[in-house]
Every structure is written in C-alpha cells, then in structure tokens.
Model the fold of this input.
Amino acid sequence: MKIQNLAVLFIIIILPISMILTSYTQNQVKTLGIQTSYDTKLNNATHDALKAFQLNTMNSDTSDLSNSKLRDIEASANTFFNSVASNFNMAGYNQDILAEYVPALVYTMYDGYYIYSKYTNTLDSTNSNEVIVNEMTGETDEQSDAEILSNDREDVTYKQNQKLAGLKPYIYYSCRYKYNGNDFVITYSLDNYITIQGMINVNGEMKWVYDAGYLLDNVTGDITSSGDTYYRGVKIDTSESLKECIDETKKEYTYIKVNGVKYYQNDDGSWFSILNGSRYPQQNFVTQTNAGIKYYREAEAFKRRITNDYNLGDLNASHAVDETGASLVELDANGNRTNIPKLGNYKIFDFGNMNGTSIEDPNSNFNQQRLAVIRYSIEKNLSIAIANFNDYSGVTANFQMPKLQEDEWDKIVNNVSIISFLQGLNIGGKVYNGYSIITNNKNEEVVSEDSIYIISKNDSQYHRANDVELKGKNNLEGVFNVDLEIKSITDANGVAKYFIPKQLNGNLITGSYSSIVNQTGVEQTDNLYQYMANLNTQNPRLAQVYFTALGRERYSSYKTYNDPEKEKEKFTP
Done:
C-alpha cells in the first residue's frame, strides 16, 4: 500500500477520535467552569446569611434570648435563600426552584446547633388542654393539640402531617455517659464551659447533680475572698474599670456585663440597662467590676467539685453511650462491633498538667473529647436531615451527606458557623453537589482565645493579643473584639445613628494594620494560654490584661441555664 493511502487511512481513523476527544475535553472544561461558578455563588450566599446573622445579633439588645435568636436565624435563612436566588437568577433558577435543591442549612451556636430543613409537622395527641366548647354556658372540655388543630378547621395555623420548611429544635452538644452506676449527660460548648446533669455517686450516695462551669488548671492563690488570685503565675487584675459609648454622642459610661446584658451607670450613681434603644432604670443595683477574677475562682471551685465531690477523675471517653444507653463503638464493614469506642479511649477530665498539658489547652484530652462529641452529633443529625430530604424534594436527586475534610471540621467545631448544601443541579457533564462553610469569630455567642484584642492607649490602636509590638508596651487594656465594631441605634424620630462602643476619651481607636489586616506582625501560636504565660516575665502587664479580659468576658457572657437575677447577685458586694 502506498504511503499516501496509509496517510488517508490514518486521517480517516484518527480524525473522528480526535474530534470526539476535543468535544469531551471542551465539555469537561465547561462543566468545571460551571461547578466553580456555582461554588462561588453558594459561598457568596452563605456569607450573606452569616453577615445578616452577625449584624442582627450585634445590634440587638435581646440577641442572647432564645426567641430573639430564633428570629435572627430565621432572618439569616431568608437572606440565604434570597441571595442564592439572586446569584443563580442568570442560570434560570428562582427561589422556589432552588429551595428544592437545598437539603439543609446548619447554624452552629455556642452550646448547640440548629438545622434548617423540611419536616413533617406532627401534633401532640397525648397532651391535655382545657378549651371552651360552649361559649354560652362556659362548658369546657379536655382536648389535645391534634384535636384542637384538626385538619377540618380552616382557621388553624398548623395542621397535622403538614410538610413545612424551617428550623428544627435546638440540638445541644451533649453526650451521655454510664459507668459504675453513674448515668449523666455532659453538654459541651465552643470553649471550656460544660454542664453536667444526671445521677452521680456523691460520697457513696446516688444524687441528682446539676452543675456547670468553666474547666481550668493552674489557678492558685486566694480563691475564696479578696486576696490575690493567679492564673499560670499571672496576677488577675481586680481594679479595671470598664467604659464605653452607648450612642453617637461619644459620652462614655461606666458599665458591667451580667449574663450577656450590659448595665450602665449615670453620673448620679444610678444604673440603667438598654432595650431596643430605650433606657430602663435598675433599682437598688449596687455592683462591682469583679467578673475577671470570679471566672478563675469559680473555675477552681468547679474543678474541685468534679474531682473531689463527684469523683469524675476516672471518667473515660469509652463510657459514652447513645440515647438508648448502648455503648458507642465502631462497626466493621459487616456491621459487627469492633469494641473500639467512637469517641476515643482516654480520661476526659485530665486535670493536673498531664504530660505538660492543661485541661484548657487545645491538645488536651478534654478538648479532644469536646471536639469529637460536637462532630459526632452534627454528623449524625445532619446525615439524617439530608437523607430525609429525599422524601420532601420534588426533584429526582439523591441527597446525601458529603464527606467533609478534617480542616473543615476544625472550623466548624471551633467557631460559630453556617454550613449550606446545594445538591442535585445538572451542570452538563455531572450533577452538582456542593457545600459551603463560612465561620465568624466576631459575635456575641462565644468568647474564643483570639476574641480578646489589646488596646495600646499611647497610640490609640488595638492589636491581636499575640502582636509582637505589644511586648514593649505597658499602657494596655484588654477588650472584646465585638465592642470595637460599629453599632446602630434608632432615635425617637426613626433615624438610625451609628457609633462604636469602645473609644478612648471620645476618640476612635483604629486597628493596627500589621496586626489586624495583614497580620505580618503577629507571632504564630496555637496556644495563647501558654504564649501569655511565657510573656509574664517579659511583660507581665500584657499577660495580666489579656487573662483578666478573657475571664471577664467569658464569665459575663450569656448562658442558657443561668438565672439572670442570681447572676446579678454575684456582682453585689
């Protein structure tokens, strides 16, 4: 055969293959471009939702209350769906259509989380309500919710077996433990605060225990009266005076913060709180600014109750059980028990600087258990919510929980965050199954170690606590980063006024560029506790203001279980 004939035959064979491969490559590139575009749109919508939640909570005097928090989260969810619809509008999707492809939104809070998804409304058929059945005679009858809100009534708000979309009940970061007759639940949080509830053997007698507090090592000195208290060798300040502005006039008021609520002092010595822009006088309200030292003293007392009264020093992660009381162990590929605990096998309350690690350190056994419980709870309940979405969505898609990366879980279990999911959209060569995780470290929910900024009063700048410039400064003040953010208040005429709470003699405090913006002047550390303790000999004032501010803000933050009136009594001399 001539070479020309071979060339023609080669072209006839190769040309179609080349055209098919070219077309396939182009389609793959196009699909990848669409996927990248959808990822960006989903990230933007999730960021908008978190920003809406942040703005609502920071500018609301009632944001710590449960009903107010629900309102803020529902508003945030609406922002997400509006934003995602706006972002995907050019792709031909409106809000109603996209709602069928969003199996769940997750809002991780301080001590638990909400899942926004679809569910079937089930009315209680066992409870009893007294209702009037004859208005003329006043005759009453006992009926259940299911009977009162029956489907044959047109005036009811909720109906039996109605499919709705909204927030499911709040789920705490809780884990149940059983051993040696003890049966109790520990509720964890995004920091070292825990709540213990259940039956515990106290000095040989089974008792119901309800206790809560922060877990700390290294508290020494006087922890019962007015003497000096030390944390990691750093003396906690008892003389700090807190001041901030409450409106655009820049007048500074002395204040204290109790259970998430700030109380301000007038020039005549009287006190008031602020709710929705209005001032409410506080009668017989005599206070002292002692939250910082109380944090450490009460943490030490809580530690002694755990180890001495409740004898929980031998509590092991392997003692964890599920809601039925069955042990939590791993299963092999065949579904058989492997006797390997899902949440680990180590002592949880590792007090006493075990191997040089304190219980509040990031690498402690306690923190390992805390993170494992939070992750296990979210994974379990989120997987169920997404899988159940297959029964509610009107589209033919297989909704399932994606596998999140370890660094993504690190962000989720340590921060207030929103996790959004968008699945089942056809993008040409594949089906789009995306998710987005956006975290927020400036919120009223949690006081993390890096939430405390340090103000240098000499240059009126605020810095991150591990800014190397601070090592040579002494005229310092520790402040919660939220108090440096702009806030708004509406006057009597309905006009919004903007101001920044924390100022210095009416002057604005600016952020250090090398510390706050590009962070080139920040010394990297994964343990701010130890970082500050090491600085105590070089700059004791820096360590003091940091630990005092951290204790003050954590102790005075809102807790679900706190009685506000009893909390106020703690601040009365």
